[in-house]
Amino acid sequence: MKNVKLKLSPGSAKPKATTAARGNKRQRSVYSKAEIDEIFRRFSVQRPEPKGELEHVNAFTLLVAVALSAQATDAGVNKATRPLFAVADTPEKMLALGEEKLRDAIKTIGLYRNKATNVIALSEKLLADFGSEVPKTREELMTLPGVGRKTANVVLQMAFGQSTIAVDTHLFRIANRIRLAPGKTPDEVEANLMRVIPEKYLYHAHHWLILHGRYVCKARRPECERCIIADICKSPEKSCDIPAPLVELPPQAVPVAG
Length: 258
Hints:
This protein is mostly helical. The protein is built from twelve helices and no strands. The protein has helices at 19-26, 33-46, 59-68, 74-87, 91-97, 99-105, 112-130, 138-141, 149-160, 169-177, 186-196, 199-215. Helix 2 (33-46) crosses helix 12 (199-215). The longest helix has 19 residues, at 112-130. The chain is elongated.
C-alpha cells in the first residue's frame, strides 16, 4: 500500500504545535541560575526577615485577613480587622458575633457582603470538620468557603512555616514584567517560580517579590532608580541600569501568628 500524503486546501488550517510546546519557550526564565541566585541574595540582604503586612494574632485571624484581602489593600483590611479581631479571634467567637455584625465591621472592604458570608461559613466548617483548628494542608484549606490556592499558600507560609509561593497581583506582575518566571495564569507563574528559585531562598521568596512589587517595581511606573537588582533586571520597561545601594531595611513591625 502506497503512502499517501495529505494535501491541505488553500483555506485549510495548517497543523499547529500543542499549547504546551508553544508555551514552553515563552514561559522560560531569561535569567541564568547565577543571576537568579544573585537576585535573591540581594533581596535577602535588603530584607533578612520579610513579613506579610496583614495584621493577625493567630492562624485563624490570618486566614480571615487573607480571605478579606482579595481585591482590597492590606492597609484597608488592617484598619477593619483591628477592632474585629479584638472581639473575634476564634471560629467560636466569630460565629457568636454573627454575620450581620461582621458585615458592619468589614463594610469598608470591597465585596464585604460575600466575604462576611464566607467567613461565617468557613468558621462553621472549621468547627464541624477540623476541631476549630486551621488545617495545615493546602487541600484541606481549599475546602473552606472563600479559600482559594493563593489564600491557602499564604496561610501555609505565614502560619505554618511552609515554603510556598502565593501569587497575588504584585507577584504576578513582577514575575512577568522582569521575565523571571513568566506565565499566563497565577498557577503557571507559581509553578515556574517554584522551579527557578533556589531552595535556600524559597521560604522568603514570596514576601520578597510582593514587597518589591509593592514599593519599588510599582504597577504604573517601576521606580528603577530605587531597585537593588536594576543591573540584572531584563525587563523591557527598565529605565535604569545602576542598582540602588544594597543596605538592610529597618525591620517590619507586623504581628505574626503564634
